[in-house]
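Thread title: Can someone regenerate the structure for this chain?

I was given the following input by a collaborator and told the matching C-alpha cells would be attached. They weren't. Posting the sequence so someone can regenerate them.
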Amino acid sequence: MRLETKLGLFNGLSKLLLVLLGALFIPPIVQRVAVGHTDQRLHDKKEELLRLITRDGLTAFLRAEHDESYADYNILKQEYIAITPLPAYPNGPMGPPTERVFEEPRQVDQEVEDFRILSYVAPLGTLSPADALASINGAPPRRYRLEIGSSLATVELLTDTLRQLALWVLVAGAL
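Best answer:
Regenerated them for you:
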C-alpha cells in the first residue's frame, strides 16, 4: 500500500474516531452545563427575590391577616415562585438558613410538570408591625420556605440546543 493511501486512511479514521468520541462524551458534559446554568439562574432569582423582600417586606407577597402562601407562575407555567410560612420551631434555636436544589414534580393547574427547584428555608423578615414587635420582645422571627422552580422541559430544551451546536461544530471541525 502506498504511503499516500496510508496517510489518507489514517486521516479519515482519526477524524471518524474524534467524531465518535465527541458524540459519546459531549452529551453528558452538555447536560451538566445546562443544569449548572439553570441552578445559577435559580440562585440569581433567589437573591433578587430576597432583595425585593428586604426592600418591600413580605406584605408585598403574603396576606398577613390570613397567613397564606404566595405562588406565582409565569404565563407558560415554565417557572414559578412560592413563599410558604412554616410552623415555629419547637423549643430551641432556629438554626441557620438551609438551601437545597432538587428535581420534583409539581401540579400546575391540572397538569403535573417536572421542575428543578431551589428551596430556601429561613426567617425572611416581618409581615406586620405586630411581628416586628414580637421579634423585638424576644420571640423568634417567623420562618418561610421560598421555592423557585424552573421546568425541566426548559432545561432539556437548552440541553438539546447545546448538544446540537456542539455536535455540528465537531463535525465541521472534522471536515
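Strands lie at 70-73, 79-85, 98-108, 111-123, 143-151.
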